[in-house]
């Protein structure tokens, strides 16, 4: 059968829908520690493909100082990881740096952290795919370089489609690539180090001697400045460590334990790989070559003597190793598609972003967030021409804004709360804060003119947009609450013998969400059609979004809220001698679920006319229509196509 409808193609590409209310659905889509290490930890591990290179190049002619850089890199990874373990303990429902900054340092500080994270995850996708393209095109002639950006853009589109299918599906596809990278690079680091192990004692002696000699010439402050600059330029190495705490709501129970285990896997693998690669640069005397990454140069040198008889294995194996790098970077880009929409959903739940970004698709993923991440990443890729040296600057600044605010928040928390063992925890968080703040300041100062201003400007613009959105939502909420207050104090007890329903009589079916909007519709119906309708049916559909899909308790609260709201309307009608009943349903697509409930209502009450309220603003604009869903008009169109009547009653807000 030929697929002729968009919905048919969509189902073929993305797969069948899932039921969010199925009791064991979370167990089937939640990630165990091993899968989380692949899906989320790849963001951190992949930075070993570009972070160590940037730090090593920043040393310039003082290449021997890379020994210090390797040691400092491994230590810093574990310090930041342990700091984020504290975040996992404190916020086991996810949100990471955004939640820490919001709940401990204040909503405005949380907005800064959240906006930085959104830009950070867009950059995660862009830099990972761009760096992966660099790795693959290192195997091709220089004439192929113009096609690198377009290949990267195609990869972003493919990743977006995979993530629209679901989290676990995308990780399962990319798992072999992740494992191939880790196994091949671990072997190359061991082999490359052992092959030149005889150089290590002499290298240590030369490094110490050069350090004291150079310090005698220019002073210790200059030595520290060079080391700090290289350490900061390699700050891209630590990007992605926060991914686990931001997405812990996607992990299997017990979440805290799973999150900490995932963090251990990620920190250990990143510290070993990043510091090991820096050591390889040093002991193999790696120097930059046009069109080649430093990793490609180092690995080619290590494998140049590998052969079976007269057949050289170096180049064929190098193809596999660099292909695994490109593959891992795709897995890391995938982590951006996991983390970015999660941050957007948190911002949307708090009113900083349009509510649509917290809605789930039929596959239980935040579809709007995934689409935005893909579009923004492709745009950034084209604007920067996929230049990794520029992207890593933008990336590092935003990542360390979040790192700094998160660890500062933890410091404030330990000082204020003072739970058991708080001094040790405070010292750990404070050490991480000082490291991250130092890297942020040096990178911003040194690279501001080289592109750092771009990420600061884009983050600032996003913050300004979020402030405007929040102001509109707060004003709208205050006006609706004013209407709701008229009815929230009223109580109507169940009537012993309520009026009987007559299925054939004229029926008013009201689509309600809250008491104020529902009563607005009910009173207008009685005013416009006095004594006409004999039955009143109240219909409520609640969309299960990313915020409420965090667990069974959240869904139960929604169900309880719906039950209380519908009982209010039914009891109100019974108290006024009006026959009434109610229908409810839950799902991710509010319009589709609402259409099904309306079909059931029409089957039970053939003479039903549907009514819904729609917020009308005195000064309307396209962005207000964007911020408020058009459910009433969407369901009205569907019902009219089926020959059923529906009236949209305007609810004016000044």
Summed up:
The protein has 654 residues and is an alpha/beta fold. The chain has helices spanning 6-14, 25-29, 33-39, 41-45, 51-58, 66-90, 96-105, 107-137, 148-165, 167-195, 200-218, 220-233, 243-246, 255-283, 294-303, 314-349, 367-384, 388-417, 422-446, 448-488, 515-528, 552-575, 590-604, 622-627, 631-641, and strands at 307-308, 311-312, 507-511, 535-543, 579-587, 608-617, 646-653.
CATH fold descriptor of the largest domain: Amino acid/polyamine transporter I
Distance between the termini: 53 Å
Overall 3D form: elongated
What's the multimeric state?
Answer: single chain
Q: Any idea what the CATH superfamily of the largest domain is called?
A: Amino acid/polyamine transporter I
The unreliable regions are: 1-7, 23-29, 546-550
Q: What topology, given as strand order, has the largest sheet?
A: 5-4-3-6-7
| Mean of all residue-level pLDDT scores | 81
**How many domains, in number, for the residues?**
2
Q: Report the β-strand fraction as a percent range.
A: 5-15%
Helix % is 55-70%
């Amino acid at each position: 059968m030929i697929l002729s409808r968009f919905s048919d193609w969509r189902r073929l590409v993305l797969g069948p829908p899932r039921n969010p209310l199925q009791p064991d659905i979370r167990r089937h889509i939640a990630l165990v520690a091993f899968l989380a290490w692949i899906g989320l930890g790849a963001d951190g591990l992949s930075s070993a493909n570009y972070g160590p290179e940037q730090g090593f190049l920043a040393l310039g002619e003082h290449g021997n100082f890379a020994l210090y850089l390797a040691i400092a890199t491994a230590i810093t990874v574990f310090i930041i990881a342990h700091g984020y373990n504290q975040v996992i303990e404190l916020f086991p429902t996810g949100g990471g740096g955004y939640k820490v900054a919001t709940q401990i340092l204040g909503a405005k500080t949380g907005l800064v952290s959240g906006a930085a994270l959104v830009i950070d995850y867009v950059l995660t996708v862009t830099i990972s795919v761009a760096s992966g393209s660099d790795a693959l095109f290192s195997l091709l002639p220089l004439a192929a370089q113009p096609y690198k950006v377009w290949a990267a853009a195609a990869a972003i589109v493919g990743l977006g489609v995979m993530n629209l299918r679901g989290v676990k599906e995308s990780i399962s596809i990319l798992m072999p690539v992740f494992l191939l990278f880790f196994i091949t690079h671990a072997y190359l680091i061991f082999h490359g180090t052992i092959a030149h192990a005889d150089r290590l004692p002499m290298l240590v002696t030369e490094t110490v001697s050069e350090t004291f000699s150079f310090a005698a010439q220019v002073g210790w402050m200059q030595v520290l400045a060079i080391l700090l600059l290289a350490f900061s330029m390699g700050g891209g190495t630590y990007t992605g460590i926060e991914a686990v705490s931001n997405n812990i709501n996607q992990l299997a129970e017990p979440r805290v334990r799973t999150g900490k285990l995932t963090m251990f896997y990620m920190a250990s693998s990143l510290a070993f790989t990043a510091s090991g690669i820096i050591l390889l640069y040093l002991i193999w005397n790696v120097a930059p070559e046009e069109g080649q990454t430093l990793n490609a140069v180092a690995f080619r040198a290590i494998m140049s003597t590998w052969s079976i008889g007269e057949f050289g294995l170096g180049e064929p194996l190098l193809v596999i190793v660099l292909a695994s790098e490109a593959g891992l970077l795709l897995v890391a880009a995938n982590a951006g598609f996991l983390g970015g929409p999660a941050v957007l959903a948190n911002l949307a739940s708090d009113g900083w972003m349009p509510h649509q970004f917290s809605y789930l698709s039929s596959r239980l993923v935040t579809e709007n967030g995934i689409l935005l991440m893909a579009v923004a990443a492709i745009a950034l890729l084209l604007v920067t021409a996929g230049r990794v040296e520029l992207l890593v600057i933008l990336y590092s600044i935003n990542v360390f804004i979040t790192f700094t605010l998160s660890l500062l928040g933890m410091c404030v928390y330990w000082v204020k709360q003072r739970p058991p063992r708080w001094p040790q925890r405070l010292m750990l968080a404070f050490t991480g804060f000082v490291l991250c703040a130092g890297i942020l300041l040096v990178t911003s100062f040194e690279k501001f003119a080289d592109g750092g201003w771009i990420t600061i400007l884009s983050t600032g613009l996003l913050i300004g947009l979020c402030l405007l959105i929040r102001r509109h939502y707060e004003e709208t909420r205050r006006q609706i609450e004013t209407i709701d207050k008229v009815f929230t104090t009223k109580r109507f007890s169940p009537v012993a013998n309520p009026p009987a329903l007559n299925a054939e009589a004229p029926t008013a079916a009201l689509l309600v969400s809250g008491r104020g909007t529902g009563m607005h519709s009910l009173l207008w119906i009685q005013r416009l059609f006095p004594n006409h309708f004999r039955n009143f049916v109240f219909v409520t559909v609640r969309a299960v979004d990313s915020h409420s899909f965090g667990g069974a308790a959240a869904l139960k609260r929604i169900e309880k809220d719906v039950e209380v709201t519908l009982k209010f309307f039914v009891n109100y009608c019974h108290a006024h001698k009006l026959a009434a009943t109610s229908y409810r349903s839950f799902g991710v697509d509010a319009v589709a679920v609402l259409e099904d409930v309306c079909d059931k209502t029409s089957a039970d009450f053939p003479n039903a006319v549907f009514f819904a309220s729609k917020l009308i603003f005195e000064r309307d604009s396209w962005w207000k229509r964007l911020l408020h869903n058009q459910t009433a008009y969407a369901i009205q169109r569907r019902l009219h196509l089926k020959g059923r009547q529906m009236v949209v009653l305007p609810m004016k807000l000044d």
